[in-house]
Amino acid sequence: MGTIWELDFYSRPLRDEEGKKVWEVLICQTPLEISDRAESLFRYTQFCPNTEVNSIWLQGAIQEAIEKASEPPQRIRFFRRPMANMILKACKELSIPAAASRRTYALFQWLQERMDQFYPNLPNYQETSSPSVQFSPSPPQRLPDALQGDKWAFVSLEASAFKDMSEWDIGFGEAFGLPMVGLSEETLIPGLIVYSSRATPLAAWMSGLELAYLRLDKSDRPSLLLETGENDSWILANLTDAATQGEAEQFEEAKRNAKNVHFLAVQSDPNSESFAGLWMLQELNF
């Protein structure tokens, strides 16, 4: 999969000597192993003068981060839509693929820590409300007909069970460091397993998406949705009766109890000891 970076470039609750907003770029390496601690992976930060907020400055900052890192990123994720054009242009000049994603788990946590603990201790701090990031929802789409699952099941595993995830037989997938989330080993992590006779093509197709999280859609036609990319969503399962809707409600409750951490797995059948795909997920409130 190679090294993945997460990037945010935006103003902070700080003011310069002229009373203007101070901008900052944050770059961190995506944790890809279940044992990874985000703070032990590569991080880079640099403040940007208000007069130099442009793709040229950002390109230089990314280049400096590359020179300081042990290895360059294969791609970059970002979550802040208003900065998309600037970020994409800077990354294009460096020949680094970049994409809007809601899978910026390590960056989200780091930014929250800085908002709570770092910026307020600086002399030029000025308390302001943190702007939310709006992801315009798009109508849920059906999975391609050839990739429809045969059946599915809600399951749960204790957090400790994922310690050996790196040794599991997994075709496609992505993990992240559970230590950075702060879950106890006894915490039950809920998940959904999709069983399909075309498990490998389904998992391969999913691997091409920026998988974000699963959520219950309580509309007139209840369903379980897979949120991906900037604002895409896919119907994984139609909840056609009270029993399945109740299971989905329990899944959502278990998510909340696990700090919104959950997982999605794809297998050929319930007796399989391998996974065509397995992704750790977390729903973030940007």
TrEMBL record:
Domain of life per record: Bacteria
One family name in Pfam for this protein: Tab2-like_N
Domain RNA-binding protein Tab2-like N-terminal: from-to ranges: 4-114
Domain RNA-binding protein Tab2/Atab2 C-terminal as annotated: residue spans: 131-282
PANTHER family xrefs: PROTEIN TAB2 HOMOLOG, CHLOROPLASTIC, PTHR34556
Protein known as: Tab2/Atab2 family RNA-binding protein
